[in-house]
Amino acid sequence: MKKTPIIALATAGILVLALSGCGTTDVAAQDTAAPESVASEDCAADETTTSTDPVTLTDDFGRTVELEKPAERVAVLEWQQIEDTLTLCVTPVAVADAEGYTTWDTAEALPEGVVDVGTRQEPNLDALFATNPDLVIVEATGADDEIISQLEAYDVPVIATIGADAADPIAKMLATFDLIAEATGREERADVVKDEFDAYLADAKGALADADLPTTDFVFFDGWIDGGNVALRPFGQGSLIGELGEELGLTNAWTGEVDAAYGLGQTDIEGMLAVGDATLLHTGTVGDDSDEFLAALDGNSIWKTVPAVAEERIYSFPAGIWTFGGPRSAQQIIDAYVAALSK
């Protein structure tokens, strides 16, 4: 699969979605029975309880959402929230872009029986509501985003979320997780997962502190070919992956301009000379076409003068780690840091 620039993947969920007719799903063929209830072995062993109390919550845009009871049949239109729902041991009845999720987010497997309602940009909403959801979770650009009113026209409660916040990406990631837990009555499960995440982070920080690292400076980046040139996106201050690295005791050496939501910068090969001796880490690629930018880097004489490249301190994270995911993706990121830097 040819790799889409990572920022396009990250922000695709906030584009306007069409009402109907633009998805690829045959509504008449949908099976609206509930999918498998257990999403993973972790959930099979889960002993936490689910609340049965009425729910009143406030979503990311200050909208009050009221449920007579916690949602059970949830439709989810963005990958981070799909992952979060599965981590909470709630299997969605419908998701957008199941194939893309399965490729790029391996933190939680999508069980069989979940209806794919088309792309995140243009899901088939008739197919979505044919699954009879009692809640829809979507990313939006604001409280007045047209997608919210389009979804609400089906008389089903809608939670609208913001994709990210570079001011505190870890807190935002956990807040989204908590919001979904509240809506589904799975707050007890959420507390267990967050405790596991904290312990994971602490253990990994200790492991790296004991490692003999040549430097604690790092830069994580992604890239692609744009008009024959290599385009690079450093994950700078305010990126989830960058902040996780700093929580591990590392220093993000990319100090250039970044966007206010995802903490992503943009540069060319020459721009990477500014990171000095920092160790370089990059996204794992998927498919034969997606490592084109790496091949282009290898053949560039300027790239070879970057200290980490010259000293062979450039490492790939495993493919399938969603760098804009929830607590379980964050744990995969933590594992990848330790594995790469402990070599």
The first-level CATH class name of the largest domain: Alpha Beta
Order of neighbouring strands in the sheet with most strands: 5-4-3-6-7
Radius of gyration: 20 Å
CATH superfamily caption of the largest domain: Nitrogenase molybdenum iron protein domain
Task: Count up the domains.
Answer: 2
Based on secondary structure, the structural category is: alpha/beta
- In this structure, how is the largest beta sheet organized? 5 strands, parallel
Q: Which architecture of the largest domain per CATH?
A: 3-Layer(aba) Sandwich
**Low-pLDDT sequence parts:** 1-38
Helix content: 25-40%
Write the element-wise H/E pattern from the N-terminal end onward.
HHEEEHEHEHEHEHHEEHEEHHEH
Shape from CA axes? globular
In DSSP terms, counting alpha (H) and pi (I) runs of 4 or more, how many helices? 12
Number of strands: 12
Percent range for β-strand residues: 5-15%
Mean pLDDT: 87
Terminal Cα separation, in Å? 29 Å
CATH topology of the largest domain: Rossmann fold
Region (Disordered): 33-53
Subcellular location: Cell envelope
Domain Fe/B12 periplasmic-binding: 73-343
Signal peptide: 1-29
Structure description:
Helix 8 (187-210) packs parallel to helix 12 (327-341) and helix 9 crosses helix 12. This protein folds into 2 domains: 6-197, 3-Layer(aba) Sandwich (Rossmann fold), CATH 3.40.50; 211-341, Rossmann fold, CATH 3.40.50. It is built from 12 helices and 12 strands. By secondary structure, the protein is of the alpha/beta class. It has helices at residues 6-11, 41-44, 79-87, 98-104, 125-130, 146-152, 169-184, 187-210, 240-247, 292-298, 307-310, 327-341; strands at residues 55-58, 64-67, 74-76, 94-95, 115-116, 135-139, 158-161, 217-226, 229-234, 251-252, 279-282, 314-316. The protein has a 5-stranded parallel sheet with strand order 5-4-3-6-7, sandwiched between helices. Strands 8, 9, 10, 11 and 12 form a 5-stranded mixed sheet that branches. Helix content is 33%, strand content 14%. Its main location: other.
